[in-house]
Amino acid sequence: MIIAPSILSSDFANLEAEIKRLEENGADWVHVDVMDGHFVPNLTIGAPVVKAIKPITSIPLDVHLMIDNPAKYVKDFALAGSDIITFHYEATKEKTFEVINIIKSYGIKVGLSIKPNTSVNEIKPYLDLVDLILVMTVEPGFGGQKFMKDCADKIIEIRAYTDKDLIIEVDGGINAETAQYCKKLGANALVAGNYVFSSDNMKEAIASLR
Ligand code: DX5
Ligand code: ZN
Fold first, then answer.
1. Which bound ligand lies closest to the C-alpha atom of 209?
2. Which of 29, 42, 45, 149 gets the most CB atoms within 10 Å of its CB?
3. Where are the alpha helices (DSSP H) in the chain?
4. Residue 86 Cα, ligand 2 centroid: separation in angstroms?
5. Cα gap 22→44, rounded to integer Å
6. In 10 A of CB 108, how many CB atoms?
7. Phi-psi region at 37: left, alpha or beta (left = phi > 0; alpha = psi -120 to 50)
């Protein structure tokens, strides 16, 4: 199980120390939540922040674009040092093939994400083209929301549809209990913000998600 803590819940005034702390406590990836205030009702991190953190960590940067028109910004995020770029199907629809190809052209991993109201059916044409599917189990926009169980059930449908060695990552409301639920359904990567950063013992919190 790949554990990707989201720095959205970290102390932004001490970002370097927070990322080092993640590394020391067993995180596999650093999840970076990028929001544009249009696709989701919140504004967060941009490519300059990805560029700033790249040299201070050796673990992969898992960049989650919750933005409109991702095609326009992929280059900035790729050159800033993203190891995985995931974008939303709802933001691209018929342009999805194009965005997958742009991300691939940088030689990095490509992920496709779906919001709670989007069915797996809509993304079936892309499952064999991407490295990762990010299943949202909250409405994207904010950390600390409650896990929506029905959304996690999409994991089964995705696994059943493809034989590919796909990374299925789940994002939103992950804690020790919901992590086990997702694992049982076939998830092999988990994002966790609030649970990891609000715990008194980060090492134990991360270990409890595996
Ligand atoms: C939500 C973000 C998530 C979020 C997860 O829009 O994509 O990555 O930060 O936070 P928790 O784990 O607190 O739900
Ligand atoms: Zn995220």
1. 1
2. 29
3. 15-24, 47-53, 74-79, 96-104, 149-152, 154-161, 176-185, 194-197, 202-207
4. 9
5. 20
6. 20
7. left
The yes-or-no answer on residue 83 being catalytic is no
Which one from 11, 28, 33, 62 is the annotated catalytic residue? 33
Cβ neighbours, 10 Å, residue 82? 27
For residue 120, which of 56, 173, 164, 168 has the smallest C-alpha distance?
168
Active-site position among 36, 62, 131, 171: 171
For the CA of 35, the nearest atom of ligand 1: 6
Distance from residue 51's CA to the centre of ligand 2 (Å): 18
**Identity of residue 29:** W
* pLDDT tens, residue order, the chain (210 aa): 999 999 999 999 999 999 999 999 999 999 999 999 999 999 999 999 999 999 999 999 999 999 999 999 999 999 999 999 999 999 999 999 999 999 999 999 999 999 999 999 999 999 999 999 999 999 999 999 999 999 999 999 999 999 899 999 999 999 999 999 999 999 999 999 999 999 999 999 999 999
171 in active site: yes
CA of 164 to the centre of ligand 2 (A): 23
Candidate of 6, 45, 151 to mutate for ligand 1, largest count of ligand atoms within 8 Å of Cβ:
6
| Residue with tokens 């496709």, as numbered in its chain | 112
Task: Output the CA 172–ligand 1 centroid distance in Å.
Answer: 5
